[in-house]
Amino acid sequence: MSNSESGTQLSYLKHPGKYKGILSWLLTTDHKRIGLLYFYCVIVFFFVAAILGLLMRVELFSPGQTIMGPQTYNGLFTIHGIIMIFVIVIPALPAIFGNFFLPLMLGARDVAFPRLNLFSFYLYLTGAILGVLSQFAGDGPPDTGWTFYVPYSAESSTNVIFALTAAFVLGFSSILTGLNFIVTIHRLRAPGMGWFKMPLFPWAIYATGWIQVLATPIIGITLLMVIAERVLHIGFFDPALGGDPVLFQHLFWIYSHPAVYIMILPAMGIVTEIFPTFSQKPVFGYTAILISSLAIAFVGYFVWGHHMFTAGISYGSRWFFSFLTFLVAVPSAIKVFNWVSTMYGGSIDLKPPLLYAISFIFLFMIGGFTGITLGAVAADVHVHDTAFVVAHFHYIIFGGMGFATFAGIHYWYPKMFGKMYSNRIANIAWGINFAGFNLLYFPQFVIGLQGMPRRYFDYLPQFQTGQIISTIGGFILFTGLVLMVYNFVRSIKHGAIAPSNPWGGVTLEWQIPSPPPHENFDTIPEIKHPPYFFGNNSNTKNE
Amino acid sequence: MTHPDINSGHMDSQTGKLGMWIFLFTELFLFGGLFLVYAVFRATYSEDFHKAARELNAFIGTLNTIFLLVSSMTVAMSLTAIQKKQKNLAIFLVLSTLFLAALFMLNKYFEWSHKFHFKLYPGSEVLKNLARGELLFFGLYYMMTGLHALHVLVGMILLSVNLVKIRSGWITSKNYLLLENSALYWHLVDLIWIFLFPLLYLIT
Description:
The complex is a heterodimer.
Chain A: H1 23-26, H2 31-59, H3 70-89, H4 92-106, H5 114-136, H6 152-155, H7 160-187, H8 200-232, H9 245-279, H10 286-299, H11 315-343, H12 352-375, H13 377-383, H14 387-417, H15 423-450, H16 464-494
Helix pairs in contact in A: 2-3, 2-4, 2-5, 2-16, 3-5, 4-7, 4-8, 5-7, 7-8, 8-9, 8-10, 9-11, 9-12, 9-14, 10-11, 11-12, 12-14, 12-15, 14-15, 15-16
Chain B: H1 13-44, H2 46-53, H3 58-83, H4 87-117, H5 125-129, H6 132-167, H7 177-201
């Protein structure tokens, strides 16, 4: 479809809906507007949690008490974890880019259940606000860590119930979002788009959707049981009443390990879109990538025990979980191979989205290899609960999922807002982010191996060099993030008008104007080519 | 593949049903967590579970099972009635479903208050002096039947909405997705009870 045909509709940003003013956003059922609502919320909460993280870094600048006592520190890392995990990294990618681009890439006018979509957003907002309130209201910030391990979470006199309820509500929102996307993919693909003609970002969202739907209820019921434990002394996890605390760890990780794949799968989906576009070459190994998405989703269910190697589970189960953990690394490695091969022989255009996508591979691999270290039982016993784990986790989640998110924002920003950002500022911000990130987290691998435990507000003097470098890195990273956001905010007013296809992409979202019209497509497109078909003239860049 | 117009109120029924089925999967997993906990403690304390289950009244349990089974039948029949354009019959059948559900809840109320009378509730002194397995059995009993009762209540609200919508003529022989989905939900409530009943009442 060419540009001139679709001039009949107003863009979704200007479309007069049923309601006027602010209500036209708050009560919208347009998937694109809901995607933006999530986007703004995630940015706000991200900076709240990032500042909490920075405060922790300041505290760790020198041994002993620097700016806060142990109780405050415990509250900070708990809320930092709860907000980052449950409010940002689990929902962000499906909720922002899934909402905005899934229907566009499928050639649909909206998701399958637009009103349910709005309802999920309000559940999300309620949960997020409850999570932040738990820091301030009542009996002081929860101090259990985001993992809510019993027996402490059943006994701590702080605001644990608030935080548990927040996580429960956010989980419910996540389930409904996943359900909506699964049904959308099943029912609303454009005519001619068979399952294997679907682009790979929707495939990643599909795999994610099933994890959201089938794993999240387990954490729901587990959190309810902890609430019952606190309120009614029901005894499931209390050894004094015959219960078993390790049972809680099992139930918790049955969800929370697959949750890591809720975070990383859509991130992988985003970079899978970016590599072919900026190499102007079909993706290498389409089928291998989609099968590895599904394989990660499936095998990811059966590896939760690797969080419990030191919890006293049997030799047999440690062997089993360790083996499966190694196994789940294989499909991730296949993807890395495919991304690199996609670039091979392509005409590479090193724009900001590709820069972020390439650094995603680099950081994700460091995170992945250290994950293998942690998956090996013998090595894990040594580094369990040290800063090594913190570093590994942040390399996967921030270096992987975070950098892929930044890649996605830079990739789709022109489509979402109809404006171009400054490539120069974006490149500079990328350099600062990349340097700051590595300075922040790499030293933690080293001091972790040397024995620095995680979640301690104080430490022995020999760890100070690493801690100082890490804190400096934290401030550098934060500067880069602020610069990146400044670039986006500035460009909304001052950026050049974005053409419909600035990067020469071939998926459907690039075939309609930027920003997309209210109903996406004037006529539903008919799909004739396999995805990532670069032979068509209409796909040429229009800069 | 159909492409429903996003502006029309009536949804494509296959899409709506697919959504409901996926939602039912999540419900199964929600209860699945509790069944898992049940399995673990039942394996650890099988003696105590047998003893504690004797406290439950299998007669009331059986009665409630019958109520739910019959109500599942009436709600299925109401769907057929709507498809055959017999509006009044459908209203009568949904009303009977609601009536049976109310009987179930009434029974549950008497059952629970009877136990409360003997101070058999989580956190009570009586319960704390029982064997550990018996204490956990009652914890599970309250948690599982409580969560189930909550689902019965939600189902009753759903069915009441259906009742209003059948009367107002919104649900018709052409557009009965809401009733069909509510019936699916009601069958799930029934199905979960079918597992709860033997696990809690019949293991003595």
